[in-house]
Amino acid sequence: MKRLLIGLGLLLGACSPLSTTVDEGSVPETAPTTTVAPTTTLPPPPPTTTTTTTTTTIPLARFVDARTVRAPREGPVEGLLQFRGNPSRTWYGTGPVPVDPSIAWSFEIGCGLSTVGGEATSWCGSGWTGQPVVWERPDGVTELIFGAYDRAVHFLDAATGQPTRPEFPTQDINKGSVTLDPDGYPLIYFG
What we know:
The chain is mainly β. Helices cover 7% and strands 19% of the residues. The strands form 3 sheets. A 5-stranded antiparallel β-sheet has the order 1-4-5-6-7, with no helix packed on it. A two-stranded antiparallel ribbon has the order 2-3. The two termini are 55 Å apart. Mean pLDDT is 74; it is low at 7-12 and 18-22.
């Protein structure tokens, strides 16, 4: 609207007749031009309603604190709570690893179908991409928690390999590691 008024004012100014007076021996003068912008009547603006809102933005942590590299994640819950132990994935646990390890027990993991692009594929086992959560529960049992290709998250006693609670069914296969909430909340993250 402002552009229209300015353009209209310029147009009126350009179309106004110029008055010149010629005096013998003098240079013609240009008479001053005055333009008045046309007035318009606009309806009053609609009433505005404002709502006060609060938005909290958590700043993105672009770097992991160097003090946490190659160290277990600190918090009320101790153990290997996420893939490679901390947000920088640089902690592998404590040692030493036995020179001649032996198999203490085994656990049978089933298979699951996963559909990609309309084609179903059967996957079996737990794959090689994950790592179990290893933690000591408040009742003293060291528990392993892991997702598998059989579309479930499993909970096992580390000493016996026996289930400590029912498996948690998921909608698809689990190809990554699970994460146990480090602050002690009863939350497990997986995908």
